[in-house]
Amino acid sequence: MQGVMRGFIHGVDAVNYRLGRIVMYGIFVLMGVLLWSSISKTFFLPTLWTLEMAQFIMVGYYVLGGPYSMQMGDHVRMDLLYGGWSDRKKARVDLFTVLLLIFYLSVLIYGAISSTAYSLGYWKTEPISYLFGVVTGTEEIGRLEQSSSAWRPYMWPVKLVMLVGFFLMLLQCLSEFCKDVLRLKGQTI
User: Fold this and answer.
1) How many angstroms separate the Cα of 70 from the Cα of each of 16, 94, 114?
2) In the 8-state DSSP scheme, what is residue 186?
């Protein structure tokens, strides 16, 4: 069982580490879009797409970078008490709080599945089976949702990024859960 846990930890950590290292350069893409927005507003006609594209890039940066941040321990935490605790006490508290985060992420994933299905034109009550059908080719994509802005981009790409990001965060939480279980057993990771 510990071998399976270690394999899961290493696999999830490797995926999130590599993706996080790539996504962290998205800040430069965001800076480029915002720089172009400033230049076009100052010297040319303002472009309609820049601010909404900056929002989409920021969503990807934040959501796909979250698992990397959690893996590195760089997320926000109240260290007032936590910093002075022993490793075993930290593992016990983390074990409890990661369960709460897993529940929260499960709710977010269900909402993201529904929202992604809606953006692909699904209006009924079974979004999970619909998305599975789209992936396998048994369901057709309906009328695609577009933003209400003047630019009117399709919404499914950003919603799909959110769904993938929430799922990777859930996997990272399960990895952290396994790490805490191994720490409580006195094992090294």
Assistant:
1) 10, 12, 26
2) T
Residues of the chain with pLDDT under 50: none
Domain residue spans in the chain?
A: 2-184
- β partners of residue 154: 146
Contact by Cβ (8 Å): 24, 72: no
3-state secondary structure 7-39: HHHHHHHHHHHHHHHHHCCHHHHHHHHHHHHHH
Kindly report whether the global pTM for this prediction surpasses the value 0.85: yes
Taking CA atoms, 25 is separated from 18, 22, 155, in Å, by 12, 6, 23
Question: Contact, 178 vs 5, CB < 8 A?
Answer: yes
What's the token pair of residue 18?
């590599």
Q: In Å, how far are 105, 108, 123, 124, 146 from 120, measured between CA atoms?
A: 22, 18, 9, 12, 10
- How far apart CA 61 and CA 63 sit, in angstroms, is 6
Q: Are 17 and 71 in contact (CB under 8 A)?
A: yes
Measured in whole angstroms, the distance separating CA 12 from the mean position of its chain's CA atoms is 14
